[in-house]
Amino acid sequence: MLYLAIKHLHMTTAILSGIGFLIRGILVQIEHPVTQKKWMRILPHINDSILLFCAIWLAWKLRLVPGLDVWLSCKIFLLILYVTFGIFALRKGRDQKQKAGFFAMALWCYLSILAIAINRPLFLMF
């Protein structure tokens, strides 16, 4: 029962994280002032912390090992890229064009993580 609750919380926070990133990325592109609000910077960290906690708990519960479980290693690598590109897309990019490029790359990473999560059984063949 607890496993299913954590799994569903993980999936929910993953979707909310992607939707939130998409909204924030669009708002940054149109230079909307709401992106400067404190809650707009804090809320994603709360959601993503819950997401990370659930991911670690699920990996522990299922006895998954990065390096041995190829799909998990791919997700971790893509997560690092997603966070890095996201930082440049939302804050560190020099101009709107550069931010848009990093935003597109971060979205690609996010969608790839989702694709791996959905198609995980295919990775078990390797």
The parts where pLDDT drops under 50 for at least 5 residues are none
Proportion of beta-strand residues? under 5%
Q: How many beta strands in the DSSP annotation?
A: 0
Mean pLDDT score = 89
What is the helix fraction of residues, given as a range?
A: over 70%
Radius of gyration: 16 Å
Estimate nothing, just give the exact number of structural domains: 1
Specify the overall morphology.
globular
Organism: Gynuella sunshinyii YC6258
GO cellular component, one term: plasma membrane
Pfam family, one: SirB
Transmembrane segments: 6-27, 39-58, 70-90, 102-123
Describe the protein's architecture and organization.
The chain is an all-alpha fold and 126 residues long. The chain has one domain. It contains five helices and no strands.
Topology:
Elements lengths: L1 H28 L8 H24 L8 H23 L3 H23 L1 H4 L3
